[in-house]
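During the first year of the project, the team set up a workflow for recording each protein of interest as an amino acid sequence followed immediately by a discrete structure-token representation. This format lets reviewers and collaborators read both layers of information side by side without switching files. As required by the reporting guidelines, we include two representative entries from the current panel. The first entry is reproduced here exactly as it appears in our internal archive.
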Amino acid sequence: MLLAACGPSREEELERQHAEAKASAEHEASARQQAEREAAAARLKANDAELAKFYQGETEPEAEEPEASSPDSTGDSSPASPPPAGFQSDGRAIGDQMPAPR
């Protein structure tokens, strides 16, 4: 008889907790999706700004160091350093077209 009196209130409490947990999970998922949309929009905006600067010629390449003599003549066997970001190994900016082969 005592168990019968406690039964419905315990079930109601569990249902309430379940509903709260479900609502919380839905809210967190919604907030995460909103944050992902905002981050994607910010990345797109930054990319558009970089492209606009590039096509307007406002990008400033890193200061180029004077070319050292070939590694063979210096006796240094260390490999050549990689080109700076945005440049190919021959010093041309990425996106420049190579001349047609003859």
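The second entry, processed by the same pipeline in the following quarter, appears below.
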Amino acid sequence: MTGMSGEHAGEHVGELSSTFANEVCPILGGPVDPEAGVSHWNGKEIGFCCAPCQPKWEKLSEAQKADKLATAMQSSTANGDSASHAHDDEHGSHDHT
């Protein structure tokens, strides 16, 4: 068995998103980007829509994290899209593509 290295290491990045507990960012509600970072919480891998969301997550209390993740998980099953992805904070407008 061989490991991933060199030029093939990045080929499976898209597959990593299936390991996240959420499909929707718990901070801003956008679709999870596997390259935006990951936090480990309560045995789960939490994904984010963009890099600035991860430190915001880390600053939340345990109760806030539980609430935000529950809301994100409900959003991903109810909406199935990113129509609710709003940038109403200092995060501003940027491109997720």
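For the second entry, the following points were noted during internal review. The chain has a mean pLDDT of 76. The radius of gyration is 14 Å. Both points are flagged for discussion at the upcoming steering committee meeting.
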